[in-house]
Amino acid sequence: MHKHSTSLFSLFHSIIQNKNLIWQMTKRNVIGKYRGSLFGLLWSFLNPLIMLAVYTFAFSVVFQAKWGIENESHLDFALILFASFSIFNLFGDLIKESPGLILANPNYVKKVIFPLEILPIISLLSVCFHTGVSLIIFFILFGVTHFFLPWTLIFLPVIIVPLLLLSLGISYFLASLGVYLRDIGHLIGHLVTILLFTSPVFFSMDKIPKSFQKFMILNPIAFLLEASRSVMIFGKPPNWTVIFIYFIVGFLSLFFGFWWFQKTRKGFADVL
Q: How many domains does the chain have?
């Protein structure tokens, strides 16, 4: 039986070797999601705007939630919330899809020689496309309403990269685990919802009581969400020490997740 390498170098080599396949399958995923619908890819723009309107009405109008900035309007609340959602969904959407990645493609496991390790990469790129659309909408809205974009936006990629590494590592782990434990998909859906409401998406970290702030270290994306908002809206550079730590955590997550995936993939065909 072929032994699958657990080295990250083998993953990078596979990505380069299969780059055309990854591109074609990513494009198929993005377009196929809306195939047959009246508006097609336009839903990529409409979906985040619709959810933004719903959450803004619920939290800003009904519950009168505030971020605590000077002369804050409903529009300010909406933009900050939109930025928070865009970054959170980059993590949340990928994690929700991960347990079903292998289950949804049994033919790739059983009938053909296929580089299964690229499936989480394809899923990640598809999610990145939708996040990119949301961020473009945010930049346009923020620029039009405030007549400028913070210079600290140049630091956003430095925050996004460790988030991608962390997300991809977890994705590899869940993609494998979902083959053997079918209930994990339902559980992860609930966990992502819990994470949404316990992450600083609808509130800032300083709104959390001091006695509970220490527990936010258990939240894998809390500090990256805060850092993203800081550079996208408030013009504040990120905490470089925290970003460095997240880079290390991200690489460790990817290393362990890919190692687990490669070690367990030989049993996929027996289970499916």
A: 1
